[in-house]
Design brief:
The protein is of the alpha/beta class. It is built from seven helices and twelve strands. It folds into two domains: 99 residues, Translation factors (Elongation Factor Tu (Ef-tu), domain 3), CATH 2.40.30.10; 172 residues, Rossmann fold. Helix 5 links the parallel strand 9 and strand 10. It is found in: Cell membrane.
């Protein structure tokens, strides 16, 4: 038995030593941004840190807990001179981090008062393959939109620098969310992308659909009154928010008709139930002919 146990235990100890070594490396919090709906953004710097789009890191804050490590998806782009995460306050640990960063106080917080942070990573995910396709479908559910913040930022940087060398030609972006407040922190990024693409006369590069899956009667009445306005009443974007859930069968068929003979990457960050639905649609809408359209499904679950 010991022959079978010794190898895995040795690898496990090596992994723990590497994580301990990484946790001792200095991480500097350069900026803390409070977004609506109790979401904070931590912008950090670390010597030798290199990332790709959609990757995630483990974070430990000794001021909150000396043992707990929590995974967070990176929301910055590799082209930026810092790396960032968005943390939604939903539990004891995130609440402790919120308070440790001084976000519960009204006065300005000095940088030297910010807590020490240990970072392990980054680690790879399926989202890294986004730039391997000419056409992609990005589907985020709720806070699962975070890896696509990194993707969309990187696409924007690459597009502004040299669009001719970018293999990715078309993005279909879907975001499903239950609450209107959750749209607010991400809408700014979409607004900047929308404006930049229009300035460069390529507004068709990014097609996005935002779905609000939960609302009450008062909200519905407010949406109807402002429906005719140029910009959406929730997000401030020209693309109006849709209500309910997408008809995935129609979406897949429409995209297949517009891109015949293509390999289309489908990327999801969301719950397992939605993953099953998209996987089935990817299979059923892919053609048997190798020269036909094929949907390649990739997922991250939370």
């Amino acid at each position: 038995t010991w022959k079978w146990v010794v190898g895995p235990m040795f690898l496990y100890l090596c992994e723990r030593l590497v994580r301990f070594w990484r946790s001792q490396q200095k991480v500097v919090i350069t900026k803390v941004v409070i977004h609506p709906f109790k979401t904070i953004e931590l912008q950090m710097m670390k010597k030798g840190f290199k990332m790709e789009v959609g990757q995630y890191i483990f974070v430990k804050c000794p001021a909150v807990s000396k043992l707990e490590w929590h995974p967070f998806t990176l929301t910055s782009a590799p082209e930026e001179d810092y790396f960032s995460i968005h943390v939604r306050i939903v539990g004891d640990w995130t609440e402790g981090l919120f308070n440790a960063c001084g976000c519960d106080k009204q006065e300005f917080q000095e940088a030297w008062k910010l807590p020490k942070i240990a970072v392990d990573g980054p680690f790879g995910t399926a989202s890294e393959d986004v730039f391997s396709y000419e056409t992609v479908m990005l589907v985020g559910a709720g806070i699962g939109v975070t890896p696509f913040a990194s993707v969309l930022k990187s696409v924007w940087y690459k597009y502004c620098h040299d669009a001719t060398n970018l293999k990715l030609k078309k993005i279909y972006f879907y975001w499903l969310c239950r609450d209107t407040h959750a749209f607010e922190w991400f809408a700014d990024l979409l607004q900047s992308l929308e404006a930049q693409m229009q300035e460069r006369n390529n507004a068709d590069f990014l097609s996005y659909n935002i779905y609000l899956t939960g609302w009450d009667e008062t909200q519905a009445t407010h949406f109807v009154v402002h429906h005719e306005e140029e910009k959406d009443v929730i997000t401030g974007l020209k693309q109006k928010t849709l209500y309910g859930r997408p008809n995935w069968e129609n979406e897949f068929k429409t995209i297949a008709e517009q891109h015949p003979g293509s390999r289309i990457g489908v990327f999801l960050c969301g719950p397992e139930g939605l993953a099953d639905t998209l996987n089935k649609q990817s299979i059923s809408n892919s053609e048997a002919d190798p020269r036909g359209v094929h949907f390649i499904f990739n997922k991250e679950n939370f």
